[in-house]
Specification:
0% strand; mainly alpha; elongated
């Protein structure tokens, strides 16, 4: 006859084990960011949802928030990288060309090339993302970037006026605004299907009105 103590010894206790939690999916941050840049560039800020981003970046929402913060933070980083990677041609032209005229002419020609690159979304992210943007902070940030570019052109034009390379009655602010309007218009024209050659023709006409000494 088996004693109660022996019976207890034969019964193994059941150990409750929890299933291991899934580890966060690893991903290459730079690759994911590049995909976000292209998504915002193609669709704009408002029309690109978090679910759109997680799909194109191939990551889960928790990974997106952990790596980039919220959608707005991701957008700000995307715009910053876009500016240095794809839209730095204006800064380079202003830094490297000897005159404001040469800098603007180079900027417009390079914009015609960049905005129609067949391997990338057409036009300019900073211009396109502002369309139908109802988030005040994002709209203000994009506006500040566009105005900073115009201010840089105005400063360079004003320096050329002071140095006698442009007529003394040249309206530096208006000429800089004109340049900004042409660049913005070229971006929209590119999205509407204008070719590189067509935008180069626009640039040529824009430069024809520049004052000469």
């Amino acid at each position: 006859m088996v004693s109660s103590e022996e019976t207890k010894a034969q019964v193994k206790p059941t150990i409750q084990t929890s299933r291991p939690r899934g580890r966060p999916r690893s991903f290459d941050r730079e690759t994911a960011l590049e995909k976000a840049i292209l998504a915002f560039w193609e669709h704009g800020y408002e029309a690109t949802s978090v679910s759109d981003l997680t799909r194109v970046m191939d990551i889960g929402a928790p990974s997106l928030y952990a790596a980039f913060g919220d959608k707005r933070s991701l957008f700000e980083e995307a715009v910053s990288v876009y500016g240095s990677r794809y839209a730095a041609f204006a800064d380079r032209a202003l830094a490297e060309e000897p005159t404001a005229r040469a800098a603007v002419e180079r900027t417009l020609r390079e914009a015609a090339h960049a905005y129609t690159d067949p391997g990338l979304p057409q036009g300019c992210l900073i211009a396109h993302a502002a369309i139908n943007c109802t988030t005040p902070e994002v709209a203000a940030s994009l506006r500040d970037r566009r105005n900073a570019m115009i201010a840089a052109f105005e400063s360079r034009i004003g320096a050329d006026v002071a140095a006698g390379r442009l007529p003394s009655d040249t309206d530096a602010r208006a000429l800089a605004r004109h340049t900004g309007a042409i660049i913005h218009g070229m971006s929209q024209q590119a999205r509407d299907g204008a070719s590189r050659e067509e935008l180069e023709a626009v640039a040529e006409i824009a430069m024809a009105i520049w004052p000469r000494t």
